Amino acid sequence: MSTEPEEIKGVMDAVRARVKELRGRKGWSGADLGNKLSALGVPWNRSVVANFESGRRPAVSVQELLALAVVLGVAPVSLLTPLHSEPYRLTPKGTEPQNSVDAWLWMQGQQPLPGTDAAGARLYFAEAPTQVGRGERDPASGLYEWYEKIERGGGRG
């Protein structure tokens, strides 16, 4: 049975480090960040921030992650991956460590993870947007057509 080297960080390690770094860059205290999150309906305070940044609170929910990205002014993916290329574990068990850059590209929909077989790569690209933008706004729903998917088959457009 092998043990994991300490230097391989996981998703929550990256989120923790990025939140602490961005909060510090903005000059905010833990209470400041907690107040901003609470204003968005995420009931955090100084203690919750300190517990998360120190690792005593092991994880954040998807809703909390999105709220953190909003208040810190960054894309959610930038909280999920380290800024520098380094070994990175996507799941607690069962997956090989990835390079953090490969993980970032995967999360962005730009490339499948290294080691993905041909069938998996086809599925990955079939589901990934080929063009991201706002497009036209539907006057009835108020929604944007925000991406175009890869056209399948040999049909004419």
Rounded to an integer in angstroms, the radius of gyration calculated over CA atoms is 19 Å
Major β-sheet, in short?
Answer: 3 strands, mixed
Number of helices: 7
Helix and strand composition category = mainly alpha
Task: Give the CA-based shape.
Answer: flat
Number of strands: 5
Tell me the helix content: 40-55%
Mean pLDDT score, rounded?
84
- Largest beta sheet: strand ordering: 1-2-3
Series of secondary-structure elements, N-terminal to C-terminal: EHHHHHEEHHEE
Structure description:
With 157 residues, the chain is mainly alpha-helical. The chain has seven helices and five strands, in the order βαααααββααββ. The longest helix has 16 residues, at 11-26. It is flat, with a radius of gyration of 19 Å. The relative contact order is 0.11.
Helix/strand layout:
Blueprint: E1 9-10, H1 11-26, H2 30-39, H3 46-54, H4 62-72, H5 76-80, E2 87-89, E3 98-99, H6 100-107, H7 118-127, E4 131-132, E5 147-148
Parallel strand pairs: 1-2
Antiparallel strand pairs: 2-3, 4-5
Describe the structure concisely.
The chain is mainly α.
What descriptive keywords fit this protein?
44% helix; 157 residues; two-stranded antiparallel sheet; disordered N terminus; mainly alpha; 5 strands
